[in-house]
């Protein structure tokens, strides 16, 4: 019994940050990849980093059904602060772009059943050169609590990665001391890896709810694939540490942007679901094509991401351009499986596999149901072949249920 409980709770592996947040991967919007550090409110008022941007995105999140599917965090990224702290050393938002102040903005979100996230940096300055939290950790944690902030993304530019083990855990404690639950999003392991330091994922899990490991996503399939392959290599088995309360963060969703084809967008969304990744959309939800919105709003794919077990998929193997990924789900013996075709030749590849080859050799066989369109593929015995055509740079995502 103890062993069984241990399996359920992943004893000795996952002691998460004790703030009760991120029991499943957080969902919402994050402005960075799409809106960057656009300061041009004069000629581009709809898209500059300003309270108008976050409010108008929030309005759409509510009006178009995203919130009711779980997309609840509206996250500000870099470039929100004024150039200087106030006379008492507190951060203040840029007065022209956030004239109503941050507390007003968070209350706007709360009145709509949403949450507000903000961005800061552990170093002297943020990556874009705004005041960082160095020497102000406690002040900033208190300021964010005063503003009723719900999530802090904490970057690591302009700091020494050797200070991060102490620094990030100190910030985590200061956030906890405010008594306001604020989801803590850390870039800590990403910066450590970049300079060849092996991250201590136990410590990271104890101090952060989500954490970045790898490069920033850009608006291209190459970028998405490089992240998928980094997660596939899973160096140091960081996948094992994911679970309720703490998740690896492969960065934002670029579904709805410019760089991916329709099938590549499905591939990113499907893979992010498999990876138990935060689902933070970085797209202009005010202007999104219906077929891309439908991807982001696919309930069955979201359910894989939000599965209460919180397990991160691992790559079982690669065969040429074909990758097979498996994610255990909470209902005993069931799985989500993704078959990714990374080939870019112009016709679909017919992939033939057996249940044993996707890692589910249940003696009585399995039922396979494709997830995006909810199509029953069939029931198959462990050694029986099934054949799936998969588009170039596309995904086959399915649920696998054992037959008794
Ligand atoms: C870093 C982070 C990004 C984004 C930018 C902002 O590059 O990794 O996610 O926050 O800084 O400047």
List the helices and strands and how they pair.
Blueprint: H1 2-9, E1 27-30, H2 32-35, H3 51-63, E2 73-75, H4 102-111, E3 115-121, H5 137-146, E4 151-155, H6 164-177, E5 183-186, H7 188-194, H8 201-207, E6 210-212, H9 221-233, E7 247-249, H10 262-274, E8 279-281, H11 290-296, H12 299-305, E9 314-319, E10 322-328, E11 335-341, E12 349-353, E13 366-370, E14 375-380, E15 386-390, E16 394-402
Parallel strand pairs: 1-2, 1-8, 2-3, 3-4, 4-5, 5-6, 6-7
Antiparallel strand pairs: 9-10, 10-11, 11-16, 12-15, 13-14, 13-16
Helix pairs in contact: 5-6, 6-8, 10-11, 10-12
Bound molecules: alpha-D-galactopyranose (GLA).
Alpha-D-galactopyranose (GLA) binds at residues 32, 77-78, 126-128, 155, 187, 216.
Keywords:
404 residues; eight-stranded parallel β-sheet; Immunoglobulin-like; alpha/beta; 16 strands; binds alpha-D-galactopyranose; 2 domains; TIM Barrel; six-stranded antiparallel β-sheet; 28% helix; 12 helices
CATH-wise, what's the superfamily of the largest domain?
Aldolase class I
Largest sheet strand order: 7-6-5-4-3-2-1-8
| Amount of helix | 25-40%
Distance between the termini: 23 Å
């Amino acid at each position: 019994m103890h062993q069984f409980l241990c399996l359920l709770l992943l004893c000795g592996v996952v002691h998460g940050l004790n703030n009760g947040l991120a029991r499943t991967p957080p969902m919402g919007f994050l402005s960075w990849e799409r809106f960057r550090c656009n300061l041009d409110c004069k000629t581009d008022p709809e898209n500059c980093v300003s309270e108008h941007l976050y409010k108008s995105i929030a309005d759409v999140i509510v009006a178009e059904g995203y919130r009711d599917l779980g997309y609840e965090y509206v996250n500000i990224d870099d470039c929100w602060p004024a150039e200087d702290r106030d006379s008492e050393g507190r951060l203040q938002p840029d007065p022209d772009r956030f004239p109503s102040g941050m507390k007003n903005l968070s209350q706007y979100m709360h009145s709509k059943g949403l949450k507000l996230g903000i961005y800061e940096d552990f170093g002297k300055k943020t990556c874009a050169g705004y005041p960082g939290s160095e020497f102000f950790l406690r002040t900033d944690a208190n300021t964010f609590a005063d503003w009723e902030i719900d999530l802090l993304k904490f970057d690591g530019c302009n700091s020494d990665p050797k200070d991060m083990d102490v620094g990030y855990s100190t910030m985590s404690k200061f956030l906890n001391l405010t008594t306001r639950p604020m989801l803590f999003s850390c870039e800590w392991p990403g910066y450590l890896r970049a300079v060849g330091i092996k991250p201590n994922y136990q410590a990271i899990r104890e101090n952060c709810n989500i954490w970045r490991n790898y490069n920033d996503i850009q608006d291209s399939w190459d970028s998405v694939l490089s992240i998928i392959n980094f997660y596939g290599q899973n160096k140091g088995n960081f996948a094992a540490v994911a679970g309720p309360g703490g998740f690896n963060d492969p960065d934002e969703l670029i579904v709805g942007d410019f760089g991916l084809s329709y099938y590549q967008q499905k591939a990113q969304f499907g893979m992010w679901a498999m990876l138990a990744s935060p689902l933070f959309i970085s797209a202009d939800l005010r202007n999104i094509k219906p077929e891309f919105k439908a991807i982001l709003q696919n309930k069955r794919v979201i359910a894989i991401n939000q599965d209460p077990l919180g397990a991160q998929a691992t790559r079982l193997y690669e065969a040429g351009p074909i990758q097979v990924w498996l994610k255990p789900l909470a209902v005993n013996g069931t799985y989500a499986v993704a078959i990714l075709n990374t080939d870019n030749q112009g016709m679909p590849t017919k992939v033939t596999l057996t249940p044993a080859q996707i890692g589910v050799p249940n003696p009585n066989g399995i039922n396979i149901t494709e997830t995006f369109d909810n199509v029953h593929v069939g029931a198959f015995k462990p050694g029986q072949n099934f054949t799936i055509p998969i588009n170039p740079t596309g995904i086959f995502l399915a649920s696998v249920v054992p037959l008794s």
